[in-house]
Each structure stands twice: as C-alpha cells, then as structure tokens.
Amino acid sequence: MPHSDQKTGEGKPRTVDSKELLAGAKTLFIQHGDQQYQLRVTKENKLILTK
User: Fold this and answer.
1) What distance in Å separates the CA atoms of residue 24 and residue 51, rounded to the nearest whole number?
2) For residue 29, which of 44, 47, 13, 51 has the smallest C-alpha distance?
3) Residue 46 has pLDDT above 90, yes or no
C-alpha cells in the first residue's frame, strides 16, 4: 500500500505519488461507495478522472 510522509488525520490530506498509485498502468479504477471512477494518464502525461 502506498504510504505518505504526511501525517494522516481529519483535515490533513495525504500525498501518494501517481507512479505508486498506477504501478506502471495507464488506467486505474477507483471504487467509491457504489460508484466506479476511472483515473487515466493521457498521451500528454496528464491525469483525467471520469465517472
């Protein structure tokens, strides 16, 4: 599991490197409750999150 140098807690977001999160893939699916989101890397190396 990716880890952060920042402390976690209410109101304090943590930082995860996108390389760790994607683990070499160009697409990642995120389940949030009953909704699924897609995080993908574009040809321009930008991140796009879609539902």
Assistant:
1) 22
2) 51
3) yes
Q: φ, ψ for residue 36 (rounded to 5)?
A: -115, 135
| CATH superfamily, domain at 18-50 | Complement Module, domain 1 (2.10.70.10)
- Domain boundaries, given as residue ranges, for the chain: 18-50
Residue among 16, 30, 25 at smallest CA distance from 38: 30
Return d(Cα 12, Cα 6) in angstroms, integer.
8
Query: H/E element holding 1?
Result: none
The pTM assigned to this predicted structure is 0.71
Residue with tokens 């699916």: 29
